[in-house]
Amino acid sequence: MAEQVDQGRRQLLTAATTLTGAVGVAFAAVPFLASWKPSARARALGAPVEIDISKLEPGAMLKIEWRGKPVWVVRRTPAMLEALGAGDSLLADPGSEQSRQPDYARNPARARNPEYLVVLGVCTHLGCAPISRFEHGDAELGPDWPGGFYCPCHGSKFDLAGRVWRGVPAPTNLEVPPYTFAGTERIIVGSDGERAG
Ligand code: FES
């Protein structure tokens, strides 16, 4: 009789263990499937973003978001471009050798078309958002300030091509994302496609 009871309990335990194992596999499989199948939102976040620059005035800046990060487009004036050449000795990486940008942006203007700067608005130190300080000789930044971007978190400075100054915490220039022009009035961020016009 005792043997029969034990047999019954053993069968019950075996059945329970098998069921638990099956449920465990089912729960384990769901996150795995969810992790490799990109959601519509994830696809949207990674998709190229088109910017209308037709109303962007010389000296002004547009801000958009791409892949959850701020992207700035600055339409530089001739005076802003001239200021770029003045301060190479003040910069940590004037040739952008140590910085992140597509090959077509490894030049002094860090741009496909010098008139338009396209950079991520994320400080390369710890990720704060720098502030645009375009005015030459800004009252707070001193008479030698050529115009650029200032990070209020720990004082990093960048010129009007996003190139970092020497002696500040940020180690590299602001990152340039992949982008291309579509005609003369649109920029597509997130695509390296050939320039259409
Ligand atoms: S995060 Fe910009 S200087 Fe530290």
Helix content: 10-25%
Through-space gap between termini: 91 Å
Beta-strand residue percentage: 15-25%
| Chain-averaged pLDDT | 83
- CATH homologous superfamily grouping of the largest domain: Rieske [2Fe-2S] iron-sulphur domain
Main beta sheet: strand number and arrangement? 3 strands, antiparallel
Can you put this structure into words, describing what you see?
This protein has 197 residues and is of the alpha+beta class. It folds into 2 domains: 2-37; 44-189, Rieske [2Fe-2S] iron-sulphur domain (Rieske Iron-sulfur Protein). It has helices at 2-36, 40-46, 78-84; strands at 49-52, 61-66, 69-75, 116-120, 131-133, 148-150, 157-159, 179-182, 186-189. The strands form 3 sheets. It has a 3-stranded antiparallel beta sheet with strand order 1-9-8, with no helix packed on it. It binds FE2/S2 (inorganic) cluster. The site of FE2/S2 (inorganic) cluster has 12 residues, from loops.
